[in-house]
Amino acid sequence: MFLRNNPHKLIFLNCVRIRRCVMFVGRKEELRLLEESYASAKGSVIVVYGRRRIGKSTLIQEFVKNKEHTFYFEGIESGNTKAQILHFTSALRKMVNDPVLDSVVFSNWDQVFTYFTDRVVNSLPEKKLILVLDEIQWLAAGRKTLIAIIKYYWDNFWKEKNVKLVLCGSIASFMVENVIRSNALYGRIDLEILLKGLKPSESLSFFSERKSKDEILKYLLIMGSVPRYLEFVNQKKSFNKNINDLFFSQTGRMNNEIEKIFYSQFRGSSVYRNIVNLLQKSVLGLDKISKLLNMPSGGGLKRYLENLENAEIIVSFIPYN
Ligand SMILES: Nc1ncnc2c1ncn2[C@@H]1O[C@H](COP(=O)(O)OP(=O)(O)OP(=O)(O)O)[C@@H](O)[C@H]1O
Ligand SMILES: [Mg+2]
Questions:
Q1: Within a domain: 124
Q2: Is residue 129 located within the same domain as residue 219?
Q3: Which range has the top average pLDDT, 26-30, 174-178, 264-268, 299-303?
Q4: What is the pLDDT of residue 19?
Q5: Residue 317 belongs to some domain of the structure
Q6: Are 273 and 250 in a shared domain?
Q7: Structural domain tally of the chain?
Q8: Do 176 and 208 reside in the same domain of the chain?
Q9: Could you give the C-alpha distances from 8 to 100, 122, 196, in angstroms and in order?
Q10: Number of Cβ within a 10 Å radius of residue 196
Q11: Which among 15, 112, 208, 237 has the fewest CB atoms less than 10 Å away?
């Protein structure tokens, strides 16, 4: 364990890792909400979630870009708690120049956050500090325990210290069940952003001026205003050539994208796949889906549908008639 009263004065190194070198586009409303939350004189819990590749990390990186005390951590896919803590510690070492960290091996999250509170939060009194936990579903190794521990540190140490805690995750079901609707964080979340595709007006920035509005609209209808996909469009190629290359050539970047997204969001669950297979054929109401899948129309099925909608795979609407 580390020494609580370590006299070594900490130096905070290059806290934020900005990976992006592309031009940031849009998200004006989301940035406004984040800045408003940052400006408040107390600590805040901010949750950012949404489907994979929609731009959550990019949005957060844009938000923290010029903020002095930002500590950005990201979970690693498929790692167990031990691997997550090791990865977290090595990221912390790059942000905090503390010799203690060279020898310490944290054995649980409690030790990690005790260190973080004593050595980082408490050494920045009166300062705003942003703590970002990205890919929180991986950091938590799919379990609730990490959220319960975060709640403890939030209630007892962080909220009074002007900590801006940003929890970000891509698996809709984990984020909804264990973060947004968790008993642990109940009543504590100040800002919740379910990130969706860009607005059509924001998406325009991805296209050259030579492309017509009709052509852009066709791309947006197919690619759903997801910045990651719009980046793939080669401005020098025609619409047909782009679609052919991206979707139908063997090495096309959109080839099998739906399978990849499905797998990374919902893993092996066949229920999601069955729902989508049904809705692919026709528009159906809850009762009909429940009958065809032989599942009660209550909580469980509704939750699956909600997760698919949050991941922007299906859309619900109230029929006109
Ligand atoms: N607002 C934006 N402006 C420009 N490019 C963007 C924007 N948002 C996302 N992108 C592009 O899309 C890519 C994917 O975005 P990002 O990694 O932020 O998604 P994510 O939601 O965090 O994905 P994951 O769930 O896989 O972590 C970025 O690397 C960037 O190239
Ligand atoms: Mg991300």
A1: yes
A2: no
A3: 26-30
A4: 53
A5: no
A6: no
A7: 3
A8: no
A9: 9, 14, 45
A10: 16
A11: 208
Do the strands 129-134 and 189-194 form a parallel or antiparallel pair, or are they unpaired?
Answer: unpaired
Exposure of 98 by Cβ count < 10 A (0-12 exposed, 13-18 middle, 19+ buried)?
Answer: buried
Residue 67 and residue 209 in one domain: no
Q: Where among 194, 212, 228 does a domain terminate?
A: 194
C-alpha 320 to ligand 1 mean position (Å)? 35
| DSSP 8-state code for residue 10 | P
Ligand 2 mean position, distance from CA 310 (Å): 16
Q: pLDDT grade, residue 313 (50/70/90)?
A: confident
Whether 163 contacts 302, CB under 8 Å: no
Under the banding of pLDDT at 50, 70 and 90, the label for residue 7 is: very low
Q: Which residues have their alpha-adjacent CB atom under 5 A from ion ligand 2?
A: 57
The tokens describing 171, both together, are 């698996």
* Residue 138 is assigned to a structural domain of this protein: yes
At 224 the pLDDT is 85
Residues 75 and 223 in one domain: no
Which residue, by CA, sits nearest to atom 25 of ligand 1?
Answer: 52
The strand pairing partners of 12, in sequence order, are 96
Nearest-CA residue for atom 4 of ligand 1: 24
Residue 51 CA to residue 38 CA, distance in Å, equals 24
Domain span at residue 287? 268-310
Domain CATH code at residue 101? 3.40.50.300
Write out pLDDT tens, residues 123-159: 887 889 999 999 999 999 988 899 999 999 999 999 9
> Average pLDDT of 96-108?
88
Q: Which atom of ligand 1 is nearest to the CA of 27?
A: 1
Which residues does ligand 1 sit against, CB inside 6 Å? Answer: 22, 24-27, 52-58, 170, 227-228, 231
- Domain boundary (256, 284, 299) is at 256
